[in-house]
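Bug #77: duplicate submission created two jobs. Keeping one. Sequence:
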Amino acid sequence: MDGQGLPGGPFEQVEPLTGGTQNTLVRFRRGGRDYVLRRGPAHLRARTNDVLRREARVLAALDGTDVPAPRVIAACPDESVMNGAVFYLMTPVEGFNASVALPDLHAGDASVRHAMGLNAARALSALGAVDHEAAGLSDFGKPEGFLERQVSRWLTELESYSALDGYPGPEIPGLDDVARWLEERRPATWRPGILHGDYHLANLMYSFDGPEVAAIVDWEMCTIGDPLLDLGWLLATWPQHGDESAQLAGPLGAAGGLPATGELVAAYAERADAVAGRDLSSITWYAVLACFKLGIVLEGTHARAFAGKAPKETGDLLHAITLGLFRRAQAFIAS
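Kept job's structure:
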């Protein structure tokens, strides 16, 4: 921090932040300024440092845009400074995660929750409006063939779970039908942009005093791809009464009063620079792909539970959500 010319002095008000991330977050104050430090867990995973470097780069690129996200203050890609860990310092977010708890204002007013839902789509459209090349991210991902490789990529991932001891293989009704439909209906054209990669309500922070999105968080999956997949991801995970996926949204999903999925698409479309060159008439395809991809990702924990590498109750819960996602994919197709 001293080498970066940041304010000096003692470290004050140091506290760890929790909320579901596997990485380490620590908030502190120094020299009259507040910071959040983000680094990998105590026992670094194979790709943790590369992921942190990518996060810091994309968040820095968003500076100067109106995308609600933490801003990078300083980043340290050098692993030797913190005992092998890459880290960065970012601005704190004054907000709450609605999948964890709802303040009284939001819990008690359905109109506020309805606006929270619409603002989730609007925050995403702000990201979709960013010109990734102008932001210095032209080499950040591999957009060529992005849509073409999605189905085969995730079927290969699903097949890899068979290497886990005890896993009997995927028992997912509709798997082959959904995969076939996706391959047959793939959009012919699309415009690349920044893809968050895991856009749902649990990765949003909301303002304490209203329905505004304070920040999009957890950028671990970000790349350059088709931003409409983020919108499809939001639709795929959107809470519906009696559906297993509502558990992903916690108290906000349980409270209800949220807009219908069609309203989310309309809110996204309000911003012309987000939809220019993008075919929102194909949004059902992206929602089905999101169900397909997320279902396969969650099935991985179910498979690891058979091998004793994850709790059985967690594996069973996520398998139930996977089945629900494939039912939702089939409902999207039927509609």
